[in-house]
Amino acid sequence: MEFILEDITEDEVARRRGVYTPLTDSVRDLVDAVIRTEVGEDALADAQRRIAEIVADLRTEQMDGPYGVRHTRENTGMAWGNAVIGVRNALAPPLDIEHVPDGVRSEFTLGAAYEGPPGQVHGGVCAMLLDHLLGNAASYSSPCYTGTITVRYLRPTPLGALVAQAWVTEQNGRKRIARGTISDAEGVTCEAEGVFIVPRSAVDGPVVRWSEG
Amino acid sequence: MEFILEDITEDEVARRRGVYTPLTDSVRDLVDAVIRTEVGEDALADAQRRIAEIVADLRTEQMDGPYGVRHTRENTGMAWGNAVIGVRNALAPPLDIEHVPDGVRSEFTLGAAYEGPPGQVHGGVCAMLLDHLLGNAASYSSPCYTGTITVRYLRPTPLGALVAQAWVTEQNGRKRIARGTISDAEGVTCEAEGVFIVPRSAVDGPVVRWSEG
């Protein structure tokens, strides 16, 4: 597994983030619109044709494989293709993760694209977000991999505004245990506990800041 | 939570599926292209403007909230907005779930949009897919909700062609235990065990077939 060094300044990172964020947001809008639209078949076919044209234009120059995980010389993480935090990935809400005194925290809103049961967040989406957030809390000094994670669903999580939090409860050598929750305005809807492992290769490696994708 | 009856024939379900599938596939392509494109800023801005126009056109007529979960009088499930199986949801790979003698099975391919570590599937995506698949295995007679799920990561799951399987190992009243795995060509990469609960209201309800979103 290879992390890519992007030899650019922090200002250039910010500038590129400013270019890709509105583009990806427009794709997030499109994902939502395709789920919820009630226009007729001709309009759907027309939309499809126009989307295919945009795809062809964007693909005239593209990287061979996935985006990978990049970082600058200042060790700012650029996980821009990441499924949970990627600023170039329309599948990601994206989670914007804030470091707080006892761990990490993220406020986000999930719309129609994250639905499982009617009007509720898919339980698998909750598991996905908690896996990422707990891993982020556990990666305070170096990136970690998830060993195991257990998610407990206390009640359905409604689509809409949510808050997730995670914190480390135990550390022992390369093993770390983290816990976390997702909450709506009424309180916790689901909680998780995970065991995370720091890879041997990372123990003496650079500390990369992964708060934002 | 309300399941919506769509009073349409099975032929009409198939016809609509045929209309939305290529449209959603083109959005999946677009998600991938936005992650991987290397075109210049003017071309990105142009793409954004064109996507925003399509969104506006699709939103001229749209449902108020999320898609919900629908079914026909013949109890064919239409979870078309679902985050894992929805044929109208570009976030979903989508999983097409096959019923096999001892449970359920799905073959699928995950590209750049599902990345976590470089070249690997995001661990949270594995958890999301397993949550859905185990829930599907447990829902053989009525829809279930996940109580808890534990995912164990044996090694990284590479992006590309994968197979997931799930089966019920125990059932006791309204409680069911299911297990499952995700595998690449070399074998199992991660495995899960979950406890699923059949809601009281569903015990005597209709049996809806949820194999496809």
Structure in a nutshell:
With 213 residues, chain A is of the alpha+beta class.
Topology:
The structure is a homodimer of 213-residue chains.
Chain A: E1 3-5, H1 10-36, H2 41-58, E2 69-71, E3 77-78, E4 98-100, E5 103-110, H3 123-138, E6 145-153, E7 160-172, E8 175-184, E9 187-197
Parallel strand pairs in A: 1-2
Antiparallel strand pairs in A: 2-3, 4-5, 5-7, 6-9, 7-8, 8-9
GO molecular function (chains A, B): hydrolase activity
Enzyme class (chains A, B): hydrolase
Organism (chains A, B): Gordonia amicalis
Write structural notes for this entry.
Two copies of one chain form a homodimer. Chain A is α+β, with helices and mostly antiparallel strands and 213 residues long. Chain A has a six-stranded antiparallel sheet, covered by helices on one side. A three-stranded mixed sheet of chain A has the order 1-2-3, with no helix packed on it. In chain A, 29% of the residues lie in helices and 29% in strands. Chain A is globular. The relative contact order of chain A is 0.15. The mean pLDDT of chain A is 92. Chain A has three helices and nine strands; from the N terminus they run βααββββαββββ. The longest helix of chain A is centred in the first third of the chain and has 27 residues, at 10-36. Chain A has helices spanning 10-36, 41-58, 123-138; strands at residues 3-5, 69-71, 77-78, 98-100, 103-110, 145-153, 160-172, 175-184, 187-197. Chain A has a domain at 96-202: Hotdog Thioesterase (Thiol Ester Dehydrase, Chain A, Roll), CATH 3.10.129.10. At the A-B interface, helix 1, helix 2, helix 3 and strand 6 of A face helix 1, helix 2, helix 3 and strand 6 of B.
